[in-house]
Specification:
The complex is a heterotrimer of chains A (about 280), B (about 600) and C (about 575). By secondary structure, chain A is an alpha+beta fold. In chain A, about 40% of the residues lie in helices and about 20% in strands. Chain A has 2 domains: about 100 residues, no CATH class; about 140 residues, Immunoglobulin-like (Sandwich), CATH 2.60.40. Chain A contains 6 helices and 10 strands. In chain A, strands 3-2-1-5-8 form a 5-stranded mixed sheet. In chain A, strands 4-10-9-6-7 form a 5-stranded mixed sheet. In chain A, a hairpin with a 4-residue loop joins strand 6 and strand 7. In chain A, helix 2 runs antiparallel to helix 3. Chain A starts with a helix and ends in a 13-residue tail after the last helix. Chain B is mostly helical and about 600 residues long. Chain B starts with 9 loop residues before the first helix and ends with a helix. The longest helix of chain B is centred in the N-terminal third of the chain and has 37 residues. Chain B contains 19 helices and 2 strands. Chain C is of the alpha+beta class and about 575 residues long. Chain C contains 15 helices and 14 strands. Chain C has a 6-stranded antiparallel barrel. The radius of gyration of chain C is 30 Å and the shape is globular. Classes of the chains: A alpha+beta (about 280), B mainly alpha (about 600), C alpha+beta (about 575).
Chain lengths: ~280, ~600, ~575
């Protein structure tokens, strides 16, 4: 009976490892089984897989250790247990080795984070050049305000003024953010009411939208494609309904879209050739 | 009583016995309801938390049902509240479900069962005291739970119950119109949490005083069982962290009721009301909340760690491997636990530089947990293992703690956390710790100390069945959540399948729900075993497990004053398989050895001491 | 121990009773309907159930212009040898994959009209449609049918229950579980009115209007944008919403018609004012009037022959009938009337069962045995419990239902017509300081008088918001000062300084709000005589400039360069 329990405890880690092994083929991994849609996202994935590898090794090792001691300890014998209060050298070993591993992980990821978030980092984009939109989250949708296509931000003050004051030539959209693909873009994230969070899973971006703040979020969409955008901070009963998209397009398509948006926004129902469409 | 001297003074003993003989007869209400006896209070906590566990579990099953069968008829709930809609729940009801599931489990189950039930019952017994330092305060700490329970219950009737998550972030929880439950329901919730806080605070003051001042003669700090160390360190955590939560709670209540503006900035427009005039910072709440709530997760873990160490040592019939490293690890976890709270806030909009600092401290805190796991395995190494229900639960603790701890590493790496924050990966991690570790530890502890509480044994076969089904159900429920998280399924979503990239996860969610239902049903076995054994369990003596703690020298159950003979302690609590034990395979803490053995023991002790 | 076991089983049993069978979703009745006396209320309920069904069992009334879905086609030629196959043409042509297995074909004309069969297969190459059972009589060339009828409505219902029901309610009454927490309240479809439309003031909304709202959301409210719904999902949802609106309007009209005399208050008043001394008789007299107009309702007790039934009338109907019989007897005895068979010249119409909608002429009713005789045989034979109404063949409540619903259907059809679409005829005047100044003049003018609601600075704080308004069609005033909409909610005039336009921010949208009004609210319509296009564009230009005013009430001086893309903006020197 005792051996049964040893096997019982060993069975589940094996199932867990099998589940991990078949995950890619069962589409139990990252969305659509695709690599991340942004360069930073790829680095995040790399970090994830590195940690996963380490974790699987440690997991296997410890479970084997556990299984071994259980198996040996379940042998029927009249001898007493091994009377020991510990081992100093073992304590040292299994303090230093994990500490080393943890230190390695800590150092390895620092520059990924710095690139993502620290403004002085060389890869952090210039907001004046890369700002494409202000995205305002509200209960329960994403409202987007683009600057007019010909508006340029020459100085920080220009940008701040534009962020603080809607302009009469701004273009508006809802639940549909268009950005040029293949280059760094910045959106300015704010919220009208409660906290929300700008989460684009395929691009591996997440940033909470905090009331009272305007937070710059930058990313680069490698492929021209539509990316799903959702909310990742509880914002009320419609938290799950905030379905939107980030659509990275080629520069031409992006420019054409903005032009069309501008045209539609100032539609007076007469000047344009087509009828009012829904 | 001074504990610096290893030898007892006989005069004291006689004096104590004399005092005990003079106690007056108590009525039923004083004896069993408003009791000041720590054992009764501990058992009261145990009953209450077991009941609350079923409530919290039912709420969880409702959450899981919606995820498995979205917008379809939900049994019981659909028939009573949503009959007109054909049994389909509404989204705000779902937000209440997960809010209250977490709230009930954290504040009404886990913290009270560890600190309130086992802390209360075990501390005086294990250190050789006759009761807690402040028995009346102790009684109040139990009875303060009931206003909390009543307020949580009342909150359901205001707008359907609080709906801002157990984390209760403003602005959602601060502005009354921001969510259906953010009116009176949220206020009730905050007041209830305050009551729970008072209860915990009273408890922690009691535990600290008792452990420091009332140890039996000979019980030095490093002869205390790890359970007591854990309770001691937990009490310190409670004492230092709780006031911050209470303060934050008051600030939020004042904000909502009297118009203070701690957390709500200007210009917020919710539900078409006029813009707020604010000046507050939503992030302030997050810092204050997590400053308590991170140590809280260690409060919810350390006592179980301590108890499991004791149980493992007993069931393996050998000393704990590395007693002092275990103590230092627990202290390190607690100490470091105060400086890691920001890892809940990496995506929150706080200064990204803090991301680095909190990442480092979070990585550091993984180390003592790892050391403890190795020491547990070391405890089992070379032991003579008894595979009863208690042991099985403890092995599960270790095995599942490995999973929970390792999954934490992903979150500690900040860039990865950006992706998995607020997804089911986090849910998997903390459920592995809270259910997989703590709760299995609690199940083991219930069955281990039941004989001491009630003088009868619980049925071991039922215990094993309960264990096996719960273990399978728990793994089935929580392991796939790691996959859900990596797939990007967010938390707190009533219907993730609106989003195409999550559509394929319906089957996995159904699998999890079915496992959770099986797991939930298995708890009835434990409840039945528990209740039945109180009346019909096999009677037992003082020490049915052959265990080493002081509590096993007292009668089962202990009477008023606990010990008929005041214990005097000569050694630590883990002398199993000691060569000096004679015929038994364990050497009691209180066993008086003949001089030559005493000398040998002292020599061994120095050797062992010197090595640490 | 035994007691404990018994208690636990009892507990489990109780739980089972409460929790173990799925409840049925219901269409809630409107307040007016609930306020009718029981027989009148039942009539409305029956009419709605018969023609619209329940949420889980929808009835698609083809009278209404709703896309119920399905693929229409006609028979090319019938096969005489194989009674299960027929050559057909679909319009538009169909791929085989589009026919789901188990789909039904429903015949709309010809010998098979009203019948349905299950489809076995369809071959697009040969055009042969094969059904599972023989069709007898076989359909002829030119017979029309539809496959998968009701699919769109059903899928619309499913999508509606997932996305919309929790706010808008099962019946589209704007009273779902979440609704009470929302400000403003979700739309109640049952008046058939929607605020932001492109049609003239008295008209309904178009499908395009509704699609626009669902896709773009309504900023400033909890109606979110459902931009990412697929086109066919949108179509299905809109079909269901319009269906709910038609149902709601039908209920409203029926209840309104009956409320005049048969609401609870009206009924009590009339009973009191009846000169008859015996209060019971007074009540019966008033009820008699009701049943004479809506018909006598009852159910089948047993079938006694090919054209004979034993029936029971509903209880109040029974009371009235007995009273009528008594009066008739008294009149005959007094020699005032010759003996006449009672209920002759009336007809029975089935409202449940296989023959729903079919009519039978009644020849005699024997009050003693409760047996009803018909002129013709009942085909198919009814089952026990089937319900019916008996009333005059002309001028019946049925006729009223018909008329009412025809009107409603016509309104909805008319809305799609080009002629009611509100479109400017002149292009928008380029926005300039002069145009804005003219617009402001109009805003303040007595003729247009925007300021009475929107206030001098456009903040929505005009004097009307502080006065007590009268309720529509009544002398009673609202309990609070300010403006109310037709759904009974407090309705604040828009704060134009915020630049938040609920119906859309295009100049065309603002034009429409003024020209077509915001239906159901206090925002009136200004027709082309009152406010010609030229002036309206000036007003629109002014309104669009209000959010950018540096100082409230002082229109922006236009010094910036023309807005690219806004072909209607032009540089103008500042004043």
């Amino acid at each position: 009976m005792k051996k049964f329990w040893c096997l019982f405890f060993m069975f589940w880690p094996i199932i867990g490892l099998i589940a991990c092994a078949i995950s890619p083929s069962m589409n139990w991994g990252f969305p659509y089984g695709l690599p991340a849609g942004s360069p930073l996202g790829e680095r995040i994935d790399g970090l994830y897989y590195m940690i996963l590898a380490l974790v699987l090794i440690v997991f296997t090792g410890t479970q084997i250790g556990l299984g071994y001691v259980l198996w040996r300890g379940s042998e029927e014998t009249d001898e007493r247990a091994w009377y020991t209060h510990g081992s100093h050298s073992l304590e040292v070993i299994w303090s230093i080795v994990p500490a080393g591993i943890l230190l390695f992980i800590a150092l390895y990821q620092m520059d990924v984070w710095a690139e993502y978030r620290i403004q002085d980092n060389k890869n952090f984009p210039n907001q004046l050049e890369t700002t494409v939109a202000e995205v305002t989250a509200r209960q329960f949708e994403w409202r987007i305000r683009y600057p007019a296509p010909d508006r340029k931000f020459a100085t920080r003050a220009d940008l701040v003024t534009w962020l603080r004051n809607p302009q009469s030539d701004d273009l508006y959209s809802v639940n549909d953010i268009r950005v040029p693909a293949g280059k760094k873009v910045t959106i300015h994230l704010r919220t009208e009411d409660v906290q929300h969070s700008f989460f684009v899973p395929v691009l591996r971006i997440k940033q909470d939208a905090v009331p009272g703040k305007v937070i710059p979020v930058w990313f680069e969409a490698t492929r021209a494609d539509q990316y799903e955008l959702l909310c990742a901070e509880l914002c009320g009963w419609g938290h799950y309904k905030m379905k939107a998209r980030v659509w990275a397009q080629s520069q031409e398509e992006y420019d054409a879209y903005l032009k069309q948006l501008q045209h539609d926004q100032f539609d007076d129902g007469v000047s344009s050739a087509e009828n009012d469409e829904d | 009583m001074s504990t610096a001297h290893p030898t007892a003074q006989t005069g004291d003993l006689e004096h104590a016995a004399h005092e005990h003989a003079e106690h007056h007869e108590l009525g039923f209400v004083s004896k069993y309801v408003f009791s000041t006896d720590h054992k009764i209070i501990g058992i009261q906590f145990l009953f209450t938390t077991l009941l609350m566990m079923m409530v919290g579990g039912a709420l969880a099953l409702a959450v899981r049902w919606q995820l498995a069968f979205p917008w379809q008829w939900m049994p019981f709930v659909g028939n009573t509240i949503f009959a007109e809609q054909g049994g389909q729940i509404s989204p705000e009801f779902y937000t209440m479900l997960f809010t209250m599931h977490a709230t009930v489990m954290i504040f009404l189950v886990i913290i009270p069962v560890l600190a309130g039930a086992f802390g209360n019952f075990l501390i005086p017994l294990m250190i050789g005291a006759d009761d807690m330092a402040f028995p009346t305060l102790n009684m109040l700490s139990y009875w303060f739970m009931w206003p909390a329970i009543a307020l949580f219950g009342a909150s359901f009737f205001f707008g359907g119950g609080p709906a801002a998550g157990w984390t209760s972030y403003p602005v959602l929880s601060a502005i009354r119109d921001a969510a259906p439950g953010s009116g009176w329901a949220q206020t009730c919730w905050l007041l209830a949490v305050t009551f729970v806080g008072f209860s915990s605070m009273m408890g922690s003051i009691n535990y600290l005083t008792t452990i420091i001042n009332m140890r039996a003669p000979g019980m030095t700090l490093f002869r205390m069982p790890l359970t007591i160390w854990a309770m001691f360190i937990t009490a310190i955590l409670q004492a230092f962290a709780l006031p911050v939560l209470t303060a934050a709670g008051f600030m939020l209540v004042f904000e909502r009721t009297f118009g203070f503006t701690f957390f709500v900035p200007a210009g917020v427009i919710v539900n078409n009301a006029a813009p707020t005039v604010g000046g507050g910072q939503p992030l302030l709440w997050q810092h204050l909340f997590w400053f308590y709530s991170h140590p809280a997760v260690y409060i919810m873990l350390l006592p179980a760690m301590g108890m499991v160490s004791d149980m493992l040592s007993c069931m393996c019939r050998k000393p704990v491997f590395g007693y002092k490293p275990m103590v230092y690890s627990m202290a390190a976890i607690a100490g470091l636990g105060f400086i890691v709270w920001g890892h809940h806030m990496f995506a929150s909009g706080m200064n990204p530089a803090l991301g680095m600092t909190f990442m480092v401290s979070t990585m550091m805190i993984a180390l003592p947990s790892a050391i403890k796991v190795f020491n547990w395995i070391g405890t089992m190494w070379g032991g003579r293992l008894q595979f009863n229900a208690v042991m099985l639960n403890c092995i599960a603790f270790v095995s599942l703690f490995i999973v929970g701890g390792l999954s934490g590493l992903f979150m500690a790496a900040v860039p990865v956390d950006i992706y998995i924050h607020d997804t089911y990966f986090i849910v998997a991690h903390f459920h592995y710790i809270l259910f997989g570790s703590t709760l299995f530890g609690v199940f083991g502890a219930i069955q281990f100390w039941f004989p001491k509480m009630f003088g009868r044994m619980m049925n071991d076969t039922l215990g094993k069945w309960h264990f096996a089904i719960t273990f399978i159900g728990a793994n089935g429920a929580f392991f796939p959540m790691h996959m859900l998280g990596v797939a990007g399924m967010p938390r707190r979503y009533a219907d993730p399948y609106l989003h195409p990239y999550l559509n394929h996860l319906l089957d996995m969610n159904r699998f999890i729900t079915i496992s959770a239902i099986i797991m939930g049903l298995a708890q009835f076995i434990l409840l039945f075993n528990f209740v039945y054994s109180i009346f019909k369990g096999k009677k037992c003596g003082r020490n049915p497990w052959g265990a080493n703690g002081l509590e096993w020298t007292a009668p089962s159950p202990p009477g008023h004053g606990n010990f008929d003979i005041l214990p005097v302690v000569f050694r630590g609590p883990y002398e199993y398989a000691s060569p000096l034990a004679g015929e038994d395979d364990f050497l009691m803490q209180t066993k008086f050895l003949p001089p030559e053995d005493r000398a040998k023991e002292a020599a061994d002790h120095d050797e062992v001491e010197g090595k640490h | 121990m035994r007691v404990r076991l018994i208690i636990s089983f009892a507990f489990a049993g109780l739980c089972g009773l409460v929790g173990c069978s799925q409840p049925e979703a219901e269409f809630a009745l409107s307040e007016h309907t609930k306020n009718l006396i029981a027989p009148a209320k039942k009539t409305v309920e029956d009419a709605l159930a018969q023609n619209f069904g329940t949420p889980n069992d929808l009835v698609a009334w083809t009278r209404f212009p709703i896309e119920y879905g399905g693929h229409a086609g006609t028979v090319r030629e019938a096969q005489s040898d194989d009674e299960t196959a027929v050559a057909v043409d679909f319009d538009p042509p169909l791929e085989d994959e589009a026919l789901q297995s188990g789909a039904t074909v429903r015949w709309l004309s010809g010998k098979q009209q009203g019948n349905t069969q299950t489809i076995a297969s369809y071959n697009p190459a040969t055009g042969f449609l094969k059904v599972s059972a023989a069709m007898d009589p076989s359909p002829g060339a030119g017979d029309s049918f539809v496959v998968g009828f009701g699919q769109t409505l059903k899928s619309g219902r499913k999508l509606y229950m997932t996305h919309c029901m929790h706010c808008h309610g099962v019946a589209g009454d704007g009273a779902g579980p979440t609704a009470k927490y929302l400000n403003p309240r979700p739309r109640d479809y049952r008046l058939g009115l929607f605020k932001f439309t492109s049609t003239a003031q008295p008209e309904r909304a178009t499908r395009a209007d509704l699609k626009r709202i669902v896709k773009q959301g309504i900023p400033g409210t909890y109606m979110p944008s459902f931009l990412l719904l697929e086109d066919d999902e949108l179509t299905a949802i809109i079909a269901y919403v319009r269906w709910l609106a038609c149902r709601g309007e039908t209920e409203k009209k029926l209840a309104a018609d009956l409320s005049g005399f048969y609401s609870k208050e009206a009924f009590t008043k009339r009973v009191e004012s009846e000169s008859e001394s015996d209060p019971d008789d007074a009540r019966l007299i008033v009820l008699q009037e009701l049943f004479q107009s809506i018909g006598y309702s009852g159910r089948v007790g047993s079938v006694q022959g090919a054209n004979r039934l034993q029936i029971t009338f509903d209880s109040e109907v029974q009371d009235v009938i007995e009273y009528e019989q008594k009066q008739l007897q008294a009149a005959i005895t007094a020699g005032e009337t010759a003996e006449a068979p009672w209920l002759a010249d009336k007809e029975l119409v089935w409202i449940t069962g296989q023959s729903t909608g079919k009519r039978l002429p009644v020849t005699a009713y024997d009050a003693v045995t409760g047996s009803l005789t018909f002129a013709t045989a009942m085909k198919p034979a009814p089952t026990i419990g089937d319900r019916f109404f008996i009333h005059d063949s002309e001028d019946s409540f049925e006729g009223f239902i018909d008329e009412t619903t025809n009107d409603i259907a016509d309104f909805w059809t008319e809305a799609e017509d080009e002629s009611v679409l509100v479109r400017p005829t002149t292009p928008r005047t380029p926005s300039s300081a002069k145009s804005i100044a003219r617009g402001r003049e109009l805003f303040l003018s007595k003729k247009v008088n925007c300021v009475q609601c929107h206030g001098p600075h456009g903040r929505g704080d005009g004097p009307m918001t502080e006065a007590f308004q009268k309720k529509p069609n009544s002398e009673e005033k609202y309990p609070e000062p300010g403006l109310f909409d037709i759904w009974g909610n407090k309705s604040k005039p828009r704060d134009l300084t915020r630049g938040l336009y609920r119906g859309g921010r295009r100049p065309l949208d603002l034009y429409r709000r003024v020209r077509a009004s915001i239906k159901g609210t206090g925002m009136p319509a200004f027709n082309a005589q009152a406010l010609p296009d030229k002036d309206l564009w000036d007003l629109v230009n002014y309104v669009m400039s209000i959010p950018f005013e540096k100082q409230a009430g002082h229109p922006a001086v236009h010094t910036q360069k023309p807005i690219k893309g806004d072909s209607n903006s032009k540089r103008e020197s500042s004043k």
